[in-house]
Design a protein that fits this description.
This protein is mainly beta. The chain has a single domain, classed as Thiol Ester Dehydrase, Chain A (Roll), CATH 3.10.129. Helix content is about 15%, strand content about 50%. Strand 5 and strand 6 form a beta hairpin. The longest helix has 16 residues. It starts with 11 loop residues before the first strand and ends with a strand. About 25% of the residues are buried.
Length: about 120
């Protein structure tokens, strides 16, 4: 299946979130900290958001590979910004650079891959 001609490298999206109860882990003690799985979930969400409106009718995108490093903490109540940039399209495969910042501090970065698939799976 070929992707829609509108899905081209260079597309970008961002998600801004306050680190709330849903995004922290408490097993580390104290009041908790921004969880790595939550950061990855936001990165996947930003990647899907990047192409969502351009997907062929009856299709969606699903993640199938994530390579990220979580390099710095973010406290509950802080604001994080997650970005995704589409870098390559190969058939139904989409390749993204993803990052998470708190202000000027890079919290995490890496790559994410998604596939365009029928939405009725």
């Amino acid at each position: 299946m070929a992707t829609a001609d509108r899905i081209q490298p260079g597309l970008e999206s961002r998600i801004e979130r306050v680190v709330d109860e849903r995004l922290i882990t408490r097993h580390v003690g104290g009041k908790g900290i921004f969880a790595t799985p939550a950061m990855i979930g936001l990165m996947e969400g930003a990647s899907h958001k990047c192409v969502e409106e351009l997907l062929p009718e009856g299709h969606t995108s699903v993640g199938y590979e994530v390579h990220v490093r979580h390099m710095a903490p973010a406290a509950p109540g802080s604001t994080v910004v997650v970005t995704a940039k589409l870098t390559e399209v190969k058939g139904n495969k989409l390749y993204f650079d993803v990052a998470c910042h708190q202000g000027e501090v890079l919290l995490g970065s890496g790559t994410h891959k998604r596939a365009i698939v029928p939405a009725d799976f």
